[in-house]
Amino acid sequence: ASGGEHLINHLSLGIPFDIDAIDMNKHQIELCKLKIDKLLSDEDISNKDDNYSGKFEKVFLLLREYMGHYTSMVDVDERANKKLKFAVDIIFSNKNLSLVFGERATQYTKESFSEHFFHVFKTMLFHKDLSNSLNILRGDDLIYSRKLREDFKTNFNKHSINWINNSFESLPVDKKYDIINISNIGDWMPIEDYRMLLSNLFRHINNNGVLIARKLLGDYDLKNELEKIGYSTKPFKDETQFYTETVLAIKNKDNI
How confident is the model at residue 24 (pLDDT cuts 50, 70, 90)? Predict the structure, then answer.
């Protein structure tokens, strides 16, 4: 489930899907439901909304409060860069992220979260046309195209959604999927546990089905880990700019 953007894209398609939206954090599930309700009622979605309660959104709010008018500048100068660097070094320090998300959020990487997010937000400041960058940096309403909004309302009732506030390990043994789409959950666990999870998901994917997986800053090679299990892999474009690695993994007869 997480932030719900991938779920919204699937729900806008005309092909009927039977969807299990899974998240261990009940607040992320509520956030997804809120976005769906607002899209169906033609309301805008803003993280100024009191109910917009994802933890990352609250961290983004801290960044916006510190940056102030600098996020609205047409011409980004050295002052904005310095202010951004100072803010990100504090807000996205490993210590602060551990307080917000728990120790597991930072203990499985040697990389610097503040350096990573500084480069992400610096790119957003210079390229304000990036997907949802103004929502993150200024709190502007999430931007969905008119076509996506129309397709979403037209096709929403063709799909069924089963909300699961639990982990992937809770799935029935015989449950199979054509598509499994996961966030950077490997960054939150020891690599041995993540390998077991990826192997478990492999068993839950139909032949010719796909797994879309992401890595933020974990100390592992995602493509290599997927191929060792038996997936064929292809690069997958990450339009959010957040992830350092996004992989499309395919299960077919040659790798069973």
Answer: confident
Residue listed under structure tokens 């880990």: 225
pLDDT in tens, 122-171: 777 666 554 455 556 665 556 677 888 899 999 999 999 999 998 877 77
The number of angstroms, rounded, from the C-alpha of 154 to the middle of its chain's C-alpha atoms is: 25
Cβ atoms of 206 and 178 closer than 8 Å: yes
pTM equals 0.81
Q: Provide the CB-side half-sphere exposure for 172 (13 A, CA).
A: 5
pLDDT of 75: 47
* Sequence-ordered alpha helix ranges (H) in the chain: 5-11, 26-40, 55-67, 78-91, 94-101, 113-126, 133-138, 146-155, 191-203, 222-229
CA distance 218 to 111: 8
For 26, residues 6+ apart whose C-beta sits below 8 A from its C-beta are 165
What is the b/e burial string over 163-190, where b = at least 16 CB atoms within 10 angstroms of the residue's CB? Answer: bbbeebeebeeeeebeebbbbbbbbbbe
Phi, psi (degrees; rounded to nearest 5) at 235? -65, 150
The CA-atom distances, in angstroms, between 225 and each of 33, 71, 92, 250 are 33, 38, 27, 13
**Residue 254 near residue 224 (C-beta atoms within 8 A):** no
